[in-house]
Amino acid sequence: MEGGSGLSLRVSESEEKSKGLEGTGLNLPLNPHGNLKSASSDQTLMEILQNIRSSKTPAVINYGASWCRLCSQILPTFCKLSNNFPKLSFVYADIDECPETTQHIRYTPTFHFFRDGERVDEMIGVGEERLHDRLWLHS
């Protein structure tokens, strides 16, 4: 009997520690293309940025926060759009989980677009059509 309650406690603790896309608590669309990643630490975000620079793969990084209402509104769209643009690399980075590497972010959500390893565009705020058009432009 006591094993069951201990298991329940461990599950609850691990749920509280979820980070990245899983930590948002949102019901997000699945991504079968493997082009959607989550940076849940400064180290992970630095590795992703290095990979974007070296591979020169077109990419978009969505800088958001779990407490940001607008971020929660646009994130499901961001995930859904990752399925429409399989050649683009999509990254979600929570500014609270990556505090050192996101110091330059002043507003959430902020989207950075990369082409040939360089940041070429920035979009601040929400707007499904605006985001779609920027993704189309940079894909």
State the CATH topology: Glutaredoxin
Shape: globular
What is the number of independent domains? 1
Detail the poorly predicted runs. 1-16
Mean pLDDT: 86
Largest sheet: 5 strands, mixed
Structural class: alpha/beta
Q: Strand order, biggest sheet?
A: 1-3-2-4-5
Radius of gyration: 16 Å
Order of helix and strand elements from N to C terminus? HEHEHEEEH
Strand residue content = 15-25%
Count the beta strands.
5
CATH structural class:
Alpha Beta
CATH architecture tag: 3-Layer(aba) Sandwich
State the end-to-end CA separation.
55 Å
- The helix content is 40-55%
CATH homology superfamily name: Glutaredoxin
Question: How would you portray this structure in words?
Answer:
Pfam families: Thioredoxin. InterPro entries: Thioredoxin-like_sf, Thioredoxin_domain, TRL33. Residues 50-131 form the Thioredoxin domain. Residues 25-36 have a biased composition (Low complexity). It comes from Macleaya cordata. The longest helix is centred in the middle third of the chain and has 16 residues, at 69-84. With 139 residues, this protein is α/β, with parallel strands linked by helices. Strand 4 (110-115) and strand 5 form a beta hairpin. It has one domain (32-138): Glutaredoxin (3-Layer(aba) Sandwich). Helix 3 (69-84) crosses helix 4 (128-138). It has helices at 2-16, 42-55, 69-84, 128-138; strands spanning 36-39, 59-64, 89-94, 110-115, 118-124. The protein has a 5-stranded mixed β-sheet with strand order 1-3-2-4-5, sandwiched between helices.
Kindly list the characteristics that best describe this protein:
single chain; 139 residues; Glutaredoxin; five-stranded mixed sheet; globular; disordered N terminus; Thioredoxin-like_sf; Thioredoxin; Thioredoxin_domain; TRL33
